[in-house]
Design a protein that fits this description.
The protein contains 7 helices and 20 strands. By secondary structure, the chain is of the alpha+beta class. Strands 1, 2, 7, 8, 9, 12, 13, 14 and 15 form a 9-stranded antiparallel beta sheet that branches. A 5-stranded mixed barrel has the order 4-10-11-17-16. The chain has a two-stranded antiparallel sheet with strand order 5-6. A hairpin with a 2-residue loop joins strand 13 and strand 14. The longest helix is centred in the N-terminal third of the chain and has 46 residues. The protein is flat, with a radius of gyration of 30 Å. Keywords: Endoplasmic reticulum, Membrane, Nucleus, Transmembrane, Transmembrane helix. This is TMM43 protein. Its main location: membrane.
């Protein structure tokens, strides 16, 4: 069953499919598959939580080691042999040997990176599904809507529910790319590839000072349009914008070269990764002029945020795994609405308590080698959710 409507540029239609309600054995089979997936997710959560604690402590120790060893350079314009192989700190303006070009659009800029961003005007399909039960069957109504938008990736219209009238080209005539300067320096020091990769604060390049590069290309704002009428684009039209990162020369329109702060190992006139005794690698770059203390504080804050994000991901994986493994109890009583709802609430509470306890226990084991006292404290905390859950269960009546 399909219904069609056209609301301006947005076209819509709906499709209703129906299938018989799955029997008990079929639901049980699906639950068994979910239990296996839950077991895998459950086991992976232990690995994620345990390795995350080791990584966090190793990174923290490496940062403390780096802070105790780093040497601020007196000058960035001369290379001292005394600092060979040592961890050094320096700050200064970026410089590159040659400007980056895009000859297709007559554009050049003295920067570390130049990104050409190409978008195509295409049809995009949206789905909105709702399920309901009717006459013993499960029915699913899916509403499909189509809109034209600028997209940087080719949208495959062959996968659309209704391709007729919504056909997209299979490829773009112009490709996106990022050009990177082969030689990037701060003063007399050459940055390693790893440090150059960290220069990623892209800004859009204004095209107001450029002319139209070709007869079939029109400039509008900060875009070049491959379109007969940029104000009323058609499917298949292109628009191109440019972004740059790490301005490395004084520009009359963009200002002076960007400054960066670097902490890395000095090897001749190169700045390369520094391997700490804790087993980590230090090669740090931040925009702006920062002191040694400010750099390491930012690194510690970044490590803390990453640690808590992975802890949350580990707990969520454990919760999902336990929920999938215990889903069979819900399936066994799902034809009794009241019992089903009570069991569902109980299973969720059980999953939360067990996931919290086991997560804390895993974290404490991860800390055991490095910080035994903290490990003991977290291990004791891991028992709290189980104790709280048990205390809320009413005691059995005396016989």
């Amino acid at each position: 069953l399909q219904q069609f409507s056209d609301t301006g540029s947005r076209k819509e239609h709906a499709k209703i499919t129906s299938e018989s309600k799955p029997g008990f054995l079929e639901r049980l089979s699906e639950t068994s598959g979910g239990m296996l997936m839950g077991l895998v997710t459950f086991l992976l959560s232990f690995y994620l939580l345990f390795t995350n604690e080791g990584r966090a402590l190793r990174t923290a120790k490496s940062l403390d080691e780096g802070l105790s060893l780093v040497i601020p350079l007196d000058s960035i314009h001369s290379v001292s042999q005394q600092n060979e192989g040592r961890l050094v700190h320096l700050a200064g303006a970026l410089s590159t040997s040659k400007p980056l070009f895009d000859p297709s659009y007559g554009l050049s800029i003295q920067a570390v990176k130049l990104k050409r961003h190409v978008e195509m005007y295409q049809w995009v399909e949206y789905e909105d599904s709702t399920e309901y039960e009717e006459n013993g069957e499960i029915k699913k109504e899916t509403k499909y809507s189509y809109n034209t938008e600028w997209k940087s990736e080719v949208v495959n219209s062959r996968n659309f529910d209704r391709e007729i009238g919504h056909k997209n080209p299979s490829a773009m005539a112009v490709e996106s790319f990022t050009a990177v300067s082969p030689n990037v320096q701060v003063g007399s020091f050459v940055l390693s590839k790893g440090l150059v990769d960290k220069i990623d604060n892209f800004k859009q390049l204004s095209l107001s000072n450029l002319e139209d590069p070709h007869a079939d290309v029109t400039r509008g704002g900060d875009y070049f349009y491959h379109s007969e009428n940029p104000r009323r684009p058609e499917v298949g039209d292109l628009r191109v914008s440019f972004f740059y990162a790490g301005l490395s020369g004084d520009d009359p329109h963009l200002g002076s070269a960007d400054k960066v702060t670097v902490i890395a190992r000095q090897r001749g006139d190169q700045l390369v990764p520094y391997h700490t005794k804790s087993g980590d690698v230090l090669q740090i770059l931040y925009p702006g002029d920062l002191s040694v203390e400010e750099v390491f504080q930012k690194e510690h804050e970044s490590n803390t945020m990453k640690t808590w994000a992975l802890r949350a991901a580990g707990w969520l994986s454990m919760f999902v795994g336990i929920s999938l493994m215990t889903r069979i109890f819900y399936t066994l009583v799902d034809w009794f609405p009241l019992v089903r709802d009570m069991v569902n609430i109980g299973l969720k509470a059980f999953a939360i308590c067990v996931a919290t306890s086991l997560s804390l226990l895993t974290i404490s084991v991860g800390w055991l080698v490095y910080r035994p006292l903290w490990a003991l404290l977290i291990g004791l905390l891991s028992v709290v959710p189980i104790v709280v859950a048990k205390s809320r269960v009413p005691p059995k009546k005396q016989q």
